[in-house]
Each structure stands twice: as C-alpha cells, then as structure tokens.
Task: inverse folding
C-alpha cells in the first residue's frame, strides 16, 4: 500500500525469525471480529497490523466473524464490518464464519474426551467459580472429573441433542486444578445455550467457549500468527494446550500486543452500543463516535486512519494515545488534497457604502495555495457581504488587528476596507456595519505600500448559499476504566453545536463525502446523512491548528 511503512515492531521480528528458522513457510493472519457491534478505531489498529504484516511478507489475511456467541450477534453488524474493512483499504483472502466450524469443533471435543482430556461437569456456575480457587489458593477438583470416557461421550451427546437445560452441564478440559494460571484450572470448553444463531439457526444448543474455539478456528484456516490483544496473554498456555491436545495439522501461534486506548474515548462495543441505544448519538455512524463508520461520516480519510494506526506503533505495554493525534494525520492528508473556500459561520452583514449599488465583480482566488494544479475559482463580490462576527470588535483590546471602527483590514483576495459606522437595533445589538473600500487595493494588494495587519474572509450576500454546519467537541469528557455504565456520566452535553453558515456559491455542487478547507475554520466534510436535495450539511472534521505536536 502507498503509505506502508516498515519501521520495526516486535511482531515483525517474531515473524522474520519464524520464517528464517523454517517454523512457518508463509504468513497467514486473520482479523476476527465478533459481529456484535460496529468496528471502532481500536479494531482499525488490529486491521492495519494484521493486513499490513501479511502484505509485507507476501502472505494473506482472512476476515473471520467470530460468531460463537448466539445471542448478541446480528447481520447488520456483519455487513457493516465488511464495508468498514474495505473502506479502510483492505481486501481479505478468505471470508469465514467461526460458526461454520461447529461440526469440526464438536469432533475435536470428542477427541479430547476420548483422550481423557475433557469431561462433562454438573457443577453450577457458582460452584465452578468456588472450586476454581484464587491467585493464592489452588482450585479443588470437581466431583465429576473422573467420569468414564463412555459416560462423558454419552452425556456430551445428550448435551448436543438438547436433553439438558441451559447451565445444567458443561464440558470442561481436564488440565490442572492447582495450576498457578487460573485459565488452566479445567476451563469450560462448551456450554448449553438454547438460542437461535444468526448463521446456524437452531441446529446447535451447545456453543464452544472462546478459548476453545479460537485456536481451532486459527488451525482450521492455517493461520500462522494469531495476533490478539494483551488481555489474552494469560490465556496463551491454554491456546497452546488446545492446539497440542487436539493434534491439529496446522500449529498457529498466538502473539499479544497492547490494545489502543485514546483520551476522551470509550472503545468497547458494549459501551458504544449503549450510547446508540440511549440516543446520546444519532447512530453507530454519528460523527462523534470512534467507530469507523463515525470517523468516515465525520470526514476522516482511510489514509489518515492507516497512518495513525502505524505511527502509534505496536507495543507490549498498555498506554493511552492522545485523540488529537488522529486530527494531526487528517490535517497532514487534507492539507494537500482539500480545496479552500470561504465560509462565514456566525454572520455579520457589512455594506460597502462607496461601492456602486448595481455593480458586482468576481475575484480569482486560488483553490489551494500549496498546489497550483488545483486551479483558481471566481468568487463574486458586491456591495453587501457577510463577515464573521468575531472579526469585528467595537472596542477592541490592544493587538486586535481585525476590523474595528476606523481600522483598515484586507478582505481576502478582494479589497482593503475600513469600518465607518456601526448600526445597532433599539436594544443596542449590532445589526450591520457600514464600511468604505479603497478601489485601488483591488485583489487585496496595497496600492501605495501601506500595510494592513489583518486579513479576514467574507461571502457575498446576494450569491451566498446557506448550509448547516456542525461543530464537534469530544463526546466523552473523562474516560473511566470502569466496567459499568458510569461512563455515561461523562458524556459531554455540549459535544455538538449546529450553526447556519453562508458559503460561496460554488459550494452548491458539493457532494456527500467531499472535503474542503474552510478558510480559518478547519477541514469540513459534506455530511452524507443530513445533506439532501436542497440542503447542505457539513461536519467539521478538525480545526486548522492545535497545540498538539507530534514528536
Ligand atoms: P470490544 O471490547 O470493543 O468489543 P473486542 O476485543 O471484544 O472489542 P472483537 O470483535 O473480539 O472485539 O475484536 C476483533 C479484533 O480486534 C480482536 O483481535 C481484538 O483483539 C482487536 N481489537 C479490539 N479492540 C482493540 C483495540 N482497542 N486495540 C487494538 N485491537 C483491538
Ligand atoms: Mg468482545
């Protein structure tokens, strides 16, 4: 890919070693989302890593839906995940559903039973928890641990045939109840769930646990490097145990890296779903959401997201990334690509009293000062204009270089003007300004060497088109690590501000998804949801500058 970078990371080093030693002949990775929500920026990190590494070593990456949990999964999520992966710029080698391996997984479970490595246990989930012990206390063996192979086979079959109720029995691995690693204390492999599955329907009422299913899914697909997040580090011995005891032909290897955390961001599908379900946002693709769909609608480009994911690096230690870093890569990308235009978001009307009433003219203004090939556009100008309210002050402080009574400023690309009179309504609110212009300063150039310190933007009143402009602040004020719903207390009540702005007439042709730099205001995307036949809506993606610096 065009912006691939090959700076080192520890996973790349492991893969290089594995290829050199001959442990693996090729590299096959997978991206294995559970289809229980939309993908978020944390998933993007995993996608960029998995697809990027396979690409680098001429390998392949599968997209696999880890749909072993029947109750929470949905086809809407499956489709959105496919769309988001493609939009990010990746194409999978094979598309799989973990649920299509249920028959094979069942056979592997039978194999474990036959080898005396798994047994059916009748303890309740509470009892299993009590028997498990703690970090400092070894576990206690289940009284059902020593059932005969024949009995286990018969009971497991009955579990499969739906002869027991949910939770009545489980299949457990027979490993070591005194292992210092709690994951190895006879973990559950299968549980009974009488539920409809989006893919397999009512065929199954036993479902494999993640720790049993995942290594088998990897092995079945011939995955070589199974990259996952750090919380699975303690599960790796179990992953390896399953691969060894199931005697799979392929021997995948699990490697963990630190998940992405970001300031002012909640990043779990469960929490994001809560924000959607409780109408804090207008959907999974709300521009304030850290979902791929939300970032896309806000206006982030796939290039900026990929670069962000690469530059934050891959580490073994958890950390929190400043969410402004993503804005940095967006600016860096759009600076070269986005056309400039002038937009007035909080309008103040000015009348240029010495400009002829019926006259109008156009000024040629460059579309991108950094890229002459972007061309120029004709911007209409006449006697009445909108400027930004904040570009005028009646009683300015020192060092205010914009418009105030008696002061001269440049209207970007047009003329020098001076404010001669402030018009107010009966309550004292400023309704418009009267100004005069210097006809010799055409094009915004000084006629006699005199200098003006401020340049302000403007939009011609008679040709202006109006648009809804949506400005955003972080959705979450202070993220908390807590598992509950207390993060809802940190939702920012002022995360969205909607303004009615005025734009240059050319903007009537703007299409959903097109991106512009509004002079001095930042980068904006034409919102695909609220833009209609006769209505334009824009999302501010990021302002032009921030105090945030990268390295
Ligand atoms: P969530 O808690 O948001 O539901 P998850 O890990 O349960 O996340 P999965 O659908 O199981 O979501 O994740 C698919 C892949 O994406 C996994 O390999 C997972 O490790 C990875 N992933 C999920 N969240 C992050 C993150 N914040 N940073 C990096 N990788 C992530
Ligand atoms: Mg999950």
Result:
């Amino acid at each position: 890919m065009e912006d691939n970078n090959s700076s080192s990371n520890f996973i790349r080093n492991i893969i290089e070693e594995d290829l050199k030693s001959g442990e693996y002949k090729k590299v096959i990775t997978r991206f294995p989302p559970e289809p229980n929500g939309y993908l978020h920026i944390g998933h993007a990190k995993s996608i960029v890593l998995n697809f990027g590494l396979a690409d680098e070593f001429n390998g392949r990456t599968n997209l696999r839906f880890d749909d072993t949990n029947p109750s929470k999964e949905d086809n809407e999520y499956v489709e959105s995940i496919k769309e988001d992966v493609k939009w990010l710029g990746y194409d999978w080698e094979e598309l799989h559903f973990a649920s299509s391996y249920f028959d094979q997984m069942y056979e592997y479970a039978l194999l474990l039973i036959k080898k005396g490595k798994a047994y059916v246990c009748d303890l309740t989930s509470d009892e299993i928890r009590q028997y498990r012990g703690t970090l400092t206390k070894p576990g206690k063996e289940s009284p059902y641990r020593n059932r005969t192979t024949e009995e286990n086979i018969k009971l497991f079959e009955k579990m499969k045939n739906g002869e027991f109720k949910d939770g009545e029995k489980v299949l457990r691995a027979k490993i070591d109840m005194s292992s210092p690693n709690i994951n190895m204390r006879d973990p559950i492999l299968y549980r009974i769930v009488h539920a409809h599955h989006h893919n397999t329907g009512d065929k199954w009422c036993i479902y494999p646990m993640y720790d049993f299913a995942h290594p088998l899914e990897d092995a079945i697909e011939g995955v070589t490097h199974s990259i996952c997040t750090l919380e699975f580090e303690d599960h790796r011995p179990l992953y390896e145990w399953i691969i060894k005891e199931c005697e799979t032909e392929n021997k995948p290897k699990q490697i963990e890296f630190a998940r992405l955390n970001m300031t002012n961001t909640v990043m779990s599908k469960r929490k994001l779903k809560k924000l959607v379900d409780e109408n804090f946002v207008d959907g999974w693709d709300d521009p304030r959401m850290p979902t791929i769909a939300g970032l896309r609608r806000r206006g982030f480009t796939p290039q900026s997201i990929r670069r962000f994911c690469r530059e934050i690096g891959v580490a073994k230690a958890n950390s929190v990334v400043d969410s402004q870093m993503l804005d940095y890569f967006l600016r860096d990308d759009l600076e070269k690509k986005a056309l400039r235009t002038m937009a007035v978001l909080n309008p103040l009307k000015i009348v240029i009293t010495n400009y002829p009433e019926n006259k109008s003219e156009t000024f040629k203004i460059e579309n991108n000062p950094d890229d002459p090939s972007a061309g120029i556009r004709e911007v209409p100008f006449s006697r009445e204009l909108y400027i930004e309210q904040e570009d005028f002050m009646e009683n300015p402080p020192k060092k205010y270089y914009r418009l105030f009574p008696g002061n001269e400023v440049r209207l970007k690309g047009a003329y020098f003007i001076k404010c001669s009179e402030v018009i107010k309504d009966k309550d004292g609110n400023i309704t418009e300004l009267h100004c005069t212009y210097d006809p010799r300063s055409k094009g915004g150039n000084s006629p006699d060497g005199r200098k003006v310190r401020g340049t302000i933007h403007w939009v011609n009143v008679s040709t202006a088109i109006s648009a809804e402009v949506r400005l955003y602040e972080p959705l979450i004020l202070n993220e908390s690590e807590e598992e509950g719903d207390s993060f809802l207390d940190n939702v920012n009540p002022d995360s969205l501000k909607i303004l009615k702005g005025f734009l240059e007439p050319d903007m009537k042709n703007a299409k959903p998804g097109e991106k512009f730099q509004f002079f001095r205001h930042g980068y904006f995307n034409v919102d695909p949801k609220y833009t209609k036949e006769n209505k334009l809506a824009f999302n501010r993606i990021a302002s032009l500058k921030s105090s945030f610096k990268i390295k």
The pocket of magnesium ion (ligand 2) is lined by residues 34 (CB under 6 Å). The CA atoms of residues 75 and 198 lie 7 Å apart. Residues 269-339+467-542 form a domain with the Ribosomal Protein L25; Chain P fold (CATH 2.40.240.10). The chain has a mean pLDDT of 95.
